[in-house]
Amino acid sequence: MTKAIIIGGGIIGLACAFYLRKQGMDVVLIDKGDSGAECSSGNMGWVCPSLSDPVPAPGLIKSSLKWMIKRDSPLYIKPAIVPSLSPWLMQFWKFCSEESYQRGYTAGLELSRKTLSLFDELEQEGCLEFEMHRKGLLFVFLDQRYIEEKLDNYSIVESYGLPAPAAKSKKEVMEMEPALSDAVAGGIYLPAERHVRPESLTKALKKWLISNGAEVLSHTEATGFIQEGDKISGVKTRKKTIEGDHFLVTAGAWAGLVLRQVGLHIPMTAGKGYSITISNPSIQFQQPLYLGDSRVTISPFHDSVRIGGTMELSGLNTDLDQRRIDSLKSSAAQYLRSSVRGDEQAWCGMRPMTPDGLPIIGKAPSLNNLFIASGHAMSGISMALSTGSVMSDLITKGMSDIDLTPFRLDRFSSKKTHKNQTITVNM
């Protein structure tokens, strides 16, 4: 049986493993920690194909320069990391143009075209038990001017089979979400969007994989690859070498470090996101909320609510800055009649960020059996099943029904070194 080795056990790796195993492939999934426990565990769980637009956007340069030194802003860049991050930042700002944004948005919508139907299939098959809600998504704004701007922005979604976003008056949003305060000016409703409890989805995928014969290895770090000509024959861990026929890197923000071990250099950085999960909350929200002016989000789950957002560029670390958590609370308070009270659990995680905001999906240049699926930024949950399905087709059939040109690694400058030898890099 053909064997696929997947390096990285977040939601993207789990989804890829799921579809490859369903195709009958022997699957080994390895993760340096616990699978599903990094950025996949504390995010907002949004399944929102309409929100497939890339992070770099027109006007963001001006905003980011204003925000970057304020620790409580939507985007904070740690001054100490600016010198090492400057090449990535220069590329990122280059993509903050209308042309690049529209091109990236179109690519993201194409990748996400089957997202909702794939989640439907999961539910209909009954093979996975996870928490999913069909309540749409409500954008709310304190400033009326943002509403028309966002409506125009998302008008393209109708071309991809999604219902058009609908403008909502102040009265309408207050009726839809009684927890909102009089400060809210109005909003936009996206009816087709959903949200899941991300931990429940990753747990269900992991359980299914183990039950269906896949090997899931936690606390197993890839320390090097064995390369023979234009192929990889094995991945080295601290305990053993795992041989296989196909190798797929789904290591998220750590993908750059993993790929350096075969001489591939990708412009990947970590964008730290924060969230607070409040158990037994004092407020029961009716649907997920996007607090548009402050870029803070709210997801209601069974018996809890999660408030999340912000982007921090401070390197690859999971240090939790309490000031960012406090900022989430104060930002949410501007929109709500009263503060959300309950048992709080703070979290931060590393979002994998490329300069153009699109993931890297496809075969690695010059290596016939090495594949990459990393860099989904804030859309990991939303794009996971579509990415898993695409990668399964690409690995088993050598092709995909989605044009992967916009996601190719070689859209960035890259280089490859060290042929015909075992490459070992300590991480």
What does this structure look like?
- This protein is α/β, with parallel strands linked by helices and 427 residues long.
- It has a domain at 1-52 and 98-121 and 195-266 and 356-427: 3-Layer(bba) Sandwich (FAD/NAD(P)-binding domain), CATH 3.50.50.60.
- 29% of the residues lie in helices and 25% in strands.
- It has 11 helices and 22 strands.
- The chain has helices at residues 11-22, 60-67, 82-94, 98-111, 115-125, 145-153, 170-176, 198-211, 255-259, 322-333, 380-397, and strands spanning 3-7, 26-30, 46-47, 75-77, 132-133, 137-141, 166-168, 186-190, 194-196, 215-217, 224-228, 231-236, 241-243, 246-249, 269-279, 289-291, 296-301, 304-313, 343-353, 360-363, 370-374, 422-424.
- The strands form 4 sheets. Strands 4, 6, 7, 8, 15, 16, 17, 18 and 19 form a 9-stranded mixed sheet that branches. A 6-stranded mixed sheet has the order 10-2-1-14-21-20. The chain has a 4-stranded antiparallel sheet with strand order 13-12-11-22, with no helix packed on it.
- The model is unreliable at 414-427 (pLDDT under 50).
What Rg do the Cα atoms give?
21 Å
The CATH homologous superfamily of one domain is called FAD/NAD(P)-binding domain
Count of DSSP strands? 22
Oligomer: single chain
Name the beta content range: 25-35%
The major pleated sheet works out as: 9 strands, mixed
Q: CATH architecture of one domain, please?
A: 3-Layer(bba) Sandwich
Distance N terminus to C terminus? 32 Å
What is the CATH fold-level name of one domain? FAD/NAD(P)-binding domain
Q: What is the average of the pLDDT values?
A: 92
Q: Which bin fits the share of residues in helices?
A: 25-40%
**What would the principal axes of the Cα set say about the shape?**
globular
Separate helix tally: 11
Which stretches are low in confidence, meaning pLDDT under 50 for 5 or more residues running? 414-427
**Under the CATH scheme, which class of one domain?**
Alpha Beta
Structural class label: alpha/beta
